[in-house]
From TrEMBL:
Pfam family, one: Ank_2
SMART domains to which the protein is assigned, alphabetical: ANK
PANTHER family named in the record: ANKYRIN REPEAT AND PROTEIN KINASE DOMAIN-CONTAINING PROTEIN (PTHR24198), ANKYRIN REPEAT-CONTAINING PROTEIN-RELATED (PTHR24198:SF165)
ANK repeat locations: 24-56, 57-89, 90-122, 123-155, 156-188, 189-221, 222-254, 255-287, 288-320, 321-353, 354-386, 387-419, 420-452, 453-485, 486-518, 519-551, 552-584, 585-617, 618-650, 651-683, 684-716, 717-749, 750-782, 783-815, 816-848, 849-881, 882-914, 915-947, 948-980, 981-1013, 1014-1046, 1047-1079, 1080-1112, 1113-1145, 1146-1178
Signal peptide: 1-18
Designated name of the protein: Uncharacterized protein
Key words, A-Z: ANK repeat, Repeat, Signal
Keyword Signal: yes
Gene3D superfamilies, per the entry: Ankyrin repeat-containing domain
Keyword Transmembrane: no
Length: 1208
């Protein structure tokens, strides 16, 4: 029988030549031993078969004989030298096998033969543990009698008693308990023997252990007791037993569960009934606020649900996520429970904490049966949750096409959207539900609908690589170029995500391969940055331009190097892209790879010839980048490849300085070992020690000090390491520096000491340490500020308090006379103002501008500070050097709240400063209408004037504040009051172009012909400014066009002087005289020509202006145009008949003017017009002589050439 398993057994001279094995690796000897064939075993052993051969599981013939209790074979094999300790795959020895099988005879035999009784297998089990677990009380007794340790434990910390109780061996349990073992011993999950017996419903063992005093309240690692175990497992018999034995029925575990809750969740209706009948509280809840009913509904125990409902529990009770029993039953598709609960009146619209109803739950989970049930029961099909998702949207996202179809067939709106504007189609496409997508598209939904990020269904499907959906949507006409809010198309999405299959599909479907998003990225750039080499290769093979750049000028190679895609880098380099291309910041692929420590890419790019000295915009090279980031591996590589270790960036910092800046000790040590200079300085003379001190790298500071560097070295700002450490509040470094001998009161170029820095920056603890070590309190910087003044300026209360305590003067002043209190008030440091006042600070002390604390507080609008200072006795009518009071400052700033407060405190509204302005004048001057109104209501005079005669109304008109002008007029303001320049409100309104105010003032009786001291009228000002609209309005109100100012200029003349063509035209139409002259005899035409206004000259000529009119100097329009070199106007005037030989009072002609001024082009023009070259002025000088005398040789030659008729 044994031989039938083998093809051949050959023997030569009594020795086995070859041994065949079966599929389990068993030899003939093993099979013979396993099956109890003693004679065959003997024969095979005698023929020389190896007695220790093992099968595939590591079992020997001895182990198999032991397992099946073939005692004679066991004895024979042992007599032939079989290894008593040879173990199988789980390291179980023959004695363990005997113990597991309860073969006491063999156990005794092995012990007699010297077997190791305590040997353990891979589970930590020895013979005793296995005997207790699987064997018999006899085997246990035998092992213990032969010295086996009774307190042995397996890997899971189980004792023999626990094993026996777990597996239900009552006799073994009794024997072990009688041997005095620890009845309360626990395994690694803290289960006792009683707990294991309970779990497996070994009632006899449970009763026995309890009778022997086992703790009925023993808890395992989740604090579950035996009664909870019994309830969990539905062992009603044990539940009843434990109650009878006095178990605590309400005891809770770590989840807040008691026996009733666990019975409802995992047990049976009988166990629940038993517990309730014995007094368990029916309204109990676990930590998650679940009731017994909720637990039963969640886990699908219909009988328990029915029992609890009949016990009239709260059917609408909610857990901590606001789920009811109905919601949980729906979630898990316990249809029977759902129907039952609804029949008992459960709220079909109950919502959990995200406002999701049962129908939404059913739709989310694809429970179409329940969806239909809820609709039949009248559920609101359109009810929304907090995400504005309804049943249809959730079904599309998480459910099934059947659920979607059911909802739509029952009237759900197909165009519904969630908060993120996603439609059912978008949800389905995003989640990959092809059947749902197909159904919705066939229902003719909008295939191009977009969510709030402008993603379409196609874009979402492309993003998540749902190829089937992508193909289907494209076949249905989806826009392949649809772009989301960053203008990324489906092909870009596919490329970003490395979906090469979709990239190829999109290209095959005609996608624009070069389309760009808002970052200037196309599919290739995104593939290089986020995708894969395969995608990059696919795009390039399909014609994508390899030299494309994104908005930041990054190429595909730069993107790939930056993000660490080595395969992509290799592919692109092999495609011969520009390896030295730079982005906007000047970074090359090598620089980016270095920055992000992509070592493989760095090595590869260097091997391909990348410039190891490439610099970015700030002059930093790869080795500097490596040092900045602390990559010693790259530093070694770059130096090995020949990087220049002396290279510095634009600020003069080399790799070593950057390593100190970043704080990498290993990098610093590595660089120094490579020959870097420890005393290096940057362009502003900062040393490594300064860098380390500034950045707070204590170990590096200590390292440098140990190297003996110059700790007193200063940079160009005069700061040394100690000052830099103080500036940034690095107390450890400060301590280390002054303990090593650094000068404690060192000053920078501005005279600031470490103590001043600490006080200025609010590092009170640093200041304390400096003072404790002897820093001087009273040292001042170049502006006369000491530590307490700087602390006050920045509101560092703790520092001020410390410094005052250590002796700083409370009323110390700087060069501007400011005290700590003034600085605190100026900057609204309220708590500091309170502190200083409590310490006796002089609140009336003034700085060099005459401002004290309250004036500065008012000046800067700090009402709380003003209130505090007044409450402490500050003078409300105090004035500064310009005579301004707190009220004037508040009004000046339009701080209505502060003005109101100061007035309530009795501030004088009539106080004036040195300019003669009071509060209301300043408010009006700066356009603070509400403040003006408030001050008038509080008694300020409406006609008050400053030194320049300005009234509030004049300021309001001057500033164009119509509402304020209206208010002042309603209060009776005098429209005719004038300032010292003779201007009243309307004149200022015109001057500054405020037509609406001009209209308002005229309607209130202002005179239209009012004049200032220069006799200018409103019309003249409007014309002077070229304000055509205002001119038109004033003319419509009867303004006199011929009124003249003291220079005898009319509106027309002023408009002409300033070249306001439209205004001139308007005035001429309205009857202004074209030949009007001013005091100098100048006409509008003369002014237009003199000032180069060609268009205006044309208009005046068209109005028949006299071309030959001369001013008092004898100049006409032509002479002025020549004098000022306006060739186009000269040409225009000559064309219109101006006399080319006209002379001024000195007898000078236009040609002589051109020669005198050195205008070559003008000279040529006049000569072309046949100007007389021989004409002389009253002194006998012709044009040639005039040019000669003025040094204009070019003009001289032009005229001489004209006379001699030369050709050049």
């Amino acid at each position: 029988m044994i031989l039938k398993y083998f093809t051949t057994i050959s023997f030569i001279w009594g020795c086995a030549l070859s041994v065949q094995r079966d599929n389990d690796g068993k030899t003939p000897l093993i099979l013979a031993a396993q099956n109890g064939h003693i004679n065959l075993v003997k024969s095979l052993v005698d023929k020389g078969e190896n007695i220790e051969e093992k099968d595939n599981s590591g079992n020997t013939a001895l182990i198999w004989a032991t397992w099946n209790n073939h005692a004679s074979i066991v004895e024979f094999l042992l007599s032939k030298g079989a290894n008593l300790e040879n173990d199988q795959g789980e390291q179980q020895t023959p004695i363990i096998s005997a113990a597991r099988r309860g073969h006491t005879n063999l156990v005794n035999l092995f012990i007699d033969k010297g077997a190791d009784i305590e040997k353990k297998d891979i589970h930590g089990g020895n013979a005793l543990l296995w005997a207790a677990r699987d064997g018999s009380a006899n085997a246990v007794e035998a092992l213990l009698s032969k010295g086996s340790k009774v307190d042995v434990r397996s890997n899971d910390k189980k004792t023999p008693l626990i094993h026996a109780a777990e597996t239900g061996h009552l006799d073994t349990v009794k024997y072990l308990v009688n041997k005095g073992v620890d009845i309360e011993a626990k395994d690694n999950a803290e289960n006792t023997a009683l707990l294991w017996a309970t779990w497996n419903n070994h009632a006899g063992i449970v009763e026995y252990l309890l009778s022997k005093g086992a703790n009925i309240e023993a808890v395992q690692n989740e604090r579950q007791t035996p009664i909870i175990y019994a309830a969990r497992r539905g062992h009603t018999n044990l539940v009843t037993l434990f109650i009878d034995k006095g178990a605590d029925i309400e005891k809770r575990d770590v989840h807040g569960g008691n026996a009733l809750l666990w019975a409802a969740r995992d047990g049976s209706a009988d166990a629940v009934e038993a517990l309730l009948s014995r007094g368990s509280k029916i309204d109990v809840r676990s930590n998650d606020k679940k009731t017994p009913l909720i637990h039963a509904a969640e886990t699908g125990h219909l009988d328990t649900v029915k029992y609890l409902v009949n016990m009239r529990v709260d059917i609408e009770a909610k857990d901590n996520a606001d789920n009811t029993a109905l919601l949980w039953a729906t979630w898990n598709n316990h249809a029977g429970i759902v129907e039952y609960l609804l029949s008992k009146g459960a709220n079909i619209q109950a919502v959990q904490n995200e406002k999701q109803t049962p129908i939404i739950y059913a739709a989310r989970r694809g429970h179409t049966n329940l969806v239909n049930l809820f609709i039949d029961k009248g559920s609101d099909i359109e009810k929304r949750d907090v995400h504005v998702g309804n049943a249809l949207l959730w079904a599309a996202r998480d459910g099934s096409a059947d659920a979607v179809e059911a909802l739509l067939s029952r009237g759900s709106k197909i165009d519904v959207r969630s908060n993120d504007k996603k439609t059912p189609l978008i949800h389905a496409a995003e989640a990959g539900h092809l059947d749902t997508v197909k159904y919705l598209v066939n229902m003719r939904v909008d295939i191009e609908a977009k969510d709030n990020a402008d993603n379409t269904a196609l874009l979402w499907a492309a993003w998540n690589n749902y190829a089937g959906i992508v193909e289907f949507l494209l076949s249905k006409g989806a826009n392949i170029e649809a772009g989301q809010n960053e203008k990324q198309t489906p092909i870009i999405y596919a490329a970003r995500r490395g979906h090469t299959n979709l990239v190829n599909l999109c290209i095959d479907k005609g996608a624009d391969i070069e389309k760009r998003d808002v970052h200037g990225g196309n599919a290739l750039l995104w593939a290089a940055r986020d995708g894969s080499a395969d995608t990059v290769e696919a795009l390039i093979s399909k014609g994508s331009k390899i030299d494309v750049r994104s908005n930041d000028q990054k190429t595909p190679l730069i993107h790939a190097a930056e993000t660490g895609h080595v395969d992509t880098v290799k592919y692109l380099v092999n495609m011969r892209v520009d390896i030295e291309a730079k982005d906007k910041l000047g970074n090359t692929p090598l620089l980016w790879a270095t920055w992000n420590n992509h070592t493989g890419i760095v090595e590869f790019i260097l091997a391909k010839g990348a410039n190891i000295e490439a610099v970015q915009g700030e002059g930093q090279t790869p080795i500097i980048y490596a040092a900045r980031r602390g990559y010693l591996n790259l530093i070694d590589l770059l130096i090995e490849k020949g990087a220049d270790t002396k290279k510095t960036d634009k600020n003069g910092a080399d790799a070593l300085l950057w390593a100190f800046w970043s704080g990498y000790m290993n990098t610093v040590e590595g660089l120094l070992s490579k020959g870097f200079e420890i005393n290096v300085r940057d362009k502003v003379d900062k040393t490594p020690l300064m860098y380390a001190a500034e950045r707070g790298h204590t170990p590096l500071v200590e390292f440098l000090l140990s190297k003996g560097v110059d700790k007193e070295a200063k940079d160009r700002s005069g700061r040394n390491a100690l000052l830099w450490a103080a500036w940034n509040g690095h107390s450890d470094i400060l301590k280390r520096l002054f303990l090593s001998g650094s000068i404690l009161d060192v000053k920078d170029n501005g005279g600031k000491t470490p103590l001043i820095y600490a006080a200025e920056r609010g590092f009170a603890e640093v200041a304390k340490m400096l003072l404790d070590n002897g820093a001087k309190l009273d040292l001042k910087d170049n502006n006369g500020r000491d530590a307490v003044l700087w602390a006050a300026w920045n509101g560092n209360k703790n520092s001020v308090e410390l410094l005052l305590l250590r002796g700083s003067k409370i009323d110390v002043t700087d060069k501007n006379g400011k005290t700590p209190l003034i600085y605190a008030a100026q900057n609204a440091h309220m708590s500091l103002v309170q502190l200083l006042l409590s310490k006796g600070a002089d609140k009336e002390a003034k700085d060099k501008t005459g401002c004290n604390a309250i004036l500065w507080a008012a000046r800067n609008g700090h009402r709380d500070t003003v209130e505090l200072l007044l409450s402490k006795g500050s003078e409300i009518e105090v004035i500064d050097g310009n005579g301004k009071t707190p009220l004037i400052y508040a009004a000046h700033n339009g701080d209505e709240s502060l003005v109101q407060f100061l007035l309530s405190q009795g501030a004088n509204t009539e106080s004036k400063d040195r300019s003669g302005s009071d509060a209301i004048l300043w408010a009006a001057r700066n356009g603070h209408a509400d403040t003006v109104k408030l001050l008038l209501l509080k008694g300020s005079k409406i006609e008050v004037t400053d030194r320049n005669g300005n009234t509030p109304l004049i300021y309001a008109a001057q500033n164009g504040d119509k509402s304020l002008v209206q208010f002042l007029l309603s209060r009776g303001a005098d429209t005719e009051s004038k300032d010292r320049s003779g201007c009243n409100a309307i004149l200022w309104a015109v001057r500054n172009g405020y037509r609406d105010i001009v209209e308002l003032l005229l309607s209130e009786g202002s005179k239209i012909e009012v004049t200032d001291r220069t006799a200018k009228t409103p019309l003249i000002y409007a014309a002077q400014n070229g304000d055509k609209s205002l001119v038109q309005f004033l003319l419509s109100q009867g303004a006199n066009t011929e009124s003249k100012d003291r220079s005898q200029c009319t509106a027309l003349l002023w408009a002409a002087i300033n070249g306001h063509t439209d205004t001139v035209e308007l005035l001429l139409v309205k009857g202004s005289k074209v030949e009007v002259i001013d005091r100098e005899g100048k006409t509008p035409l003369i002014y237009a020509a003199q000032n180069g206004h060609k268009a205006l000259v044309q208009i005046l000529l068209s109005q028949r202006a006299n071309k030959e009119s001369k001013d008092k100097s004898g100049c006409n329009a032509l002479l002025w145009a020549v004098w000022n070199n306006y060739t186009d106007i000269v040409e225009l005037l000559l064309t219109n008949g101006s006399n080319i030989e006209i002379r001024d009072k000195a007898g000078k002609t236009p040609l002589i003017y051109a020669a005198e001024r050195g205008y070559a082009e003008m000279t040529e023009l006049l000569l072309d017009k046949d100007a007389n070259t021989d004409a002389v002025d009253n002194k006998g000088n012709d044009a040639v002589l005039t040019a000669f005398r003025k040094g204009h040789s070019k003009v001289e030659k032009i005229i001489i050439c004209k006379r001699s008729k030369c050709n050049s």
